[in-house]
């Protein structure tokens, strides 16, 4: 999310936004590390982190607006997908099913750990970029840690979504609109979850390889000279 040359007000807003998200996700990571993992996941991890995650994950909706109005140079379509995929997991999976299903999945700590570290680095990178000084270490972390964090995060998201399908399978009426009805229209929450999981098959490799391409571009020989 590179900022376009804009008014000082716009730059100040973006700096405030990014720095707020750095502190927000740092708080989430701190709460994560302080969590008592000796007790069942659903009894503390998601319950302890639920509201901070809801608040700071939904704050990412503003990134769509930033891209659409041209405040930053990010691709609007890609931004929409990246934001909505996370929102879908929070709203459509973790909050939409009882805590004994998705919220108690082993995928929750995987997803939250990967998300928090990734977002701290990402938003700090954006903030420093707006200040026209990005330490090389921060650049290296942004374009290297994804190699491990991205698969961990995606695995966590898929495990949570799979756990939600177990609930949807045993409760076919949950969040669904079944036939027969006056509208002659049907919607299946279970099928939606399955479709969401299947979309990871074509999309994840493309985004992952794109990040490697960006890594070669940013951390390549020429970029290293610029970084120093």
Radius of gyration: 19 Å
State which percent range the strand residues make up.
Answer: under 5%
Q: Shape, please?
A: globular
Tally of DSSP helical segments: 9
N-to-C order of helices and strands: HHHHHHHHH
Helix fraction?
A: over 70%
- What is the first-to-last residue Cα distance? 22 Å
Oligomer: single chain
Q: Tell me, rounded to a whole number, the average pLDDT.
A: 89
What structural class do the secondary elements suggest?
Answer: mainly alpha
Sheet of most strands: none
User: How many strands appear in the DSSP assignment?
Assistant: 0
Query: Runs with pLDDT <50, length 5+?
Result: 222-228
Q: What does the model show?
A:
This protein has 228 residues and is an all-alpha fold. The chain is built from 9 helices and no strands. It has helices spanning 8-33, 41-58, 61-69, 76-94, 107-130, 136-142, 146-170, 189-218, 221-227. The longest helix has 30 residues, at 189-218. The two termini are 22 Å apart.
What labels would you give this structure?
mainly alpha; 228 residues; 0% strand; 9 helices; disordered C terminus; 72% helix
Furnish the topology, listing elements before pairings:
Blueprint: H1 8-33, H2 41-58, H3 61-69, H4 76-94, H5 107-130, H6 136-142, H7 146-170, H8 189-218, H9 221-227
């Amino acid at each position: 999310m590179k900022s376009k040359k804009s008014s000082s007000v716009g730059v100040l807003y973006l700096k405030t936004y990014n720095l707020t998200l750095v502190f927000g996700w740092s708080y989430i990571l701190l709460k994560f590390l302080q969590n008592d993992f000796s007790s069942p996941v659903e009894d503390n991890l998601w319950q302890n982190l639920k509201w901070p995650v809801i608040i700071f994950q939904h704050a990412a909706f503003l990134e769509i607006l930033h891209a659409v109005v041209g405040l930053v140079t990010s691709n609007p379509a890609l931004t929409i997908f990246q934001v909505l995929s996370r929102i879908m997991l929070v709203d459509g999976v973790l909050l939409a099913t009882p805590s004994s299903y998705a919220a108690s999945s082993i995928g929750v700590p995987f997803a939250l750990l990967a998300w928090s570290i990734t977002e701290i680095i990402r938003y700090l990178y954006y903030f420093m970029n707006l200040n026209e000084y990005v330490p090389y270490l921060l650049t290296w972390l942004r374009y290297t840690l994804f190699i491990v964090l991205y698969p961990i995060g995606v695995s966590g998201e898929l495990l949570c979504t799979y756990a939600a399908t177990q609930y949807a399978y045993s409760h076919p009426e949950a969040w669904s609109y079944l036939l027969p009805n006056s509208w002659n229209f049907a919607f299946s929450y279970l099928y939606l979850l399955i479709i969401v999981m299947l979309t990871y098959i074509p999309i994840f490799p493309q985004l992952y390889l794109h990040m490697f391409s960006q890594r070669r571009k940013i951390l390549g020989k020429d970029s290293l000279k610029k970084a120093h």
